[in-house]
Amino acid sequence: MWLRPVVRLLSLPFIILTLGLFLLVVNVLMLYVTDWIVGPFEIHSFGAGLLAAVIVSVVNWALHALIPGPR
After folding, report:
1. CA–CA distance, 64 with 34 (Å, rounded to integer)
2. Which of 18, 20, 22, 58 is 20 to 30 Å from 12 by CA-CA measure?
3. In which residue ranges of the chain is pLDDT below 70?
C-alpha cells in the first residue's frame, strides 16, 4: 500500500527522463515484490514480469475508461 508510491517518488527523475516508460519497470518490481510475499504466485523471468506489467497496465487503463467516477 505504501511501497509503490515511495518507489514512484524516488524514481521520479527516471520516469520523467524516459517519458513514463520507467513506470513499466516500477510495475515489474511491484510484481516481483508480490511474488516474494505470495507463495503460489511466481514470475519466472523479467520478460514474463514485463508482459504481466503491460497486461495489468492495459486492464487498469480500460477499467478507468469504462467505469465513471472520481479519480
Report:
1. 23
2. 58
3. 71
